[in-house]
Amino acid sequence: MTNFIYRKIIWLINIVIVHSKNLCYNLLNLKGRGGEMEENLKKALSEMLVLALLHERDYYALELAPAIEERSNGAIAITFPYSILYRMIEQEYVQELPKQIAPDGRRRQYFGITETGRDYFRQIWATYQSFIAGVNQLVSNVLETEGGGVTK
After folding, report:
1. Per-residue b/e over 137-150, b at no fewer than 16 CB within 10 Å?
2. Contact 123, 5 (CB under 8 A)
C-alpha cells in the first residue's frame, strides 16, 4: 500500500479512537446530532464515493453531490465536490475531460476516472470493507458483553 493509503487508514482509526465513547450513537444518528463525527466520516469517505460514481460514468462536478445524496438515500450529503475532484486530479485518480453539452443544454466540464483511480478505488474499497468488518466485530462484541445497551 502507498503512504497515502496508510495515512487514510491511520486517520480513520484515529477518528474511531477519539470518538469511541459515542461511536455507536453517532453512527446510528449520522443525519442528526452526529455533527463532528458525520463531518469526519464524510471527509474520509468522500473520495471513495466520488470514485465509485465515476467508475460507472463521467460526471460534471455539480452532478456529483445530488447523485451521492440520492444514491445513499439521503444519508450522505456533500456540498462542494470541487476540492475533492481537484485533489484527486493532482493524485492522477481523476482527469478533466473535454467540455460537453450536459442534459440541461449547457457546456459542462466533465470528469472521468483514470486507470490509476480505478486501482486506487479497488484498494480503498477493500480497505474500507476490512475496516468496517473490524469495527462491526468490535462493537458487536462490546454490545453483547454489556447486554446490548448503547449509551450516549
Report:
1. eebeeeeeeeeeee
2. yes
Structure-block grid coordinates of residue 115: 486507470
Instruction: Identify residue 23 by its one-letter amino acid code.
Output: L
Cα–Cα dist 71/16, whole Å: 25
Phi-psi region of 64 (alpha: psi -120 to 50; beta: other; left: phi over 0): alpha
Q: What is the pTM assigned to this prediction?
A: 0.69
Strand partners, 94: 113
DSSP state of 98: -
Mind listing the pLDDT tens digit for each residue in 78-109?
888 899 999 999 999 999 999 999 888 999 99
Phi and psi at residue 51, in whole multiples of 5°?
-65, -35
Please say whether the beta carbons of 94 and 111 come within 8 A. Answer: yes
Tell me how far apart the alpha carbons of residues 64 and 67 are, in angstroms, rounded to a whole number: 5
DSSP element (H, E) containing 86: helix 82-90
Cell numbers 443525519 correspond to what residue? 31
Helix residue ranges, H only, the chain:
3-18, 23-28, 35-56, 61-71, 82-90, 115-146
C-alpha cell belonging to residue 32: 442528526
